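Hi V.,

You were right to ask for the full record rather than a summary. Here it is.
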Amino acid sequence: MSTPQATRAPRTFHIGQPIRWNPPKGAYGPKCLQTLMAGQTGVVTRLWNESYLLATIGNRNDVLLNQDFVDALA
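Predicted structure:
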């Protein structure tokens, strides 16, 4: 008998929503834009698919972010 796998609750984001980008250390290369933007806040500009979104973050527009590493802000 196998044990059930834990599934992550669905996360939903919407255009205009404030977010914080929090990728784990080492998830991206040291010179990658996603690494340079780590810890910064921004705003969702477009939903890419069920796993990614585009955001204005820092002084950059439409940065592609993995939703697994995005925190919604109130």
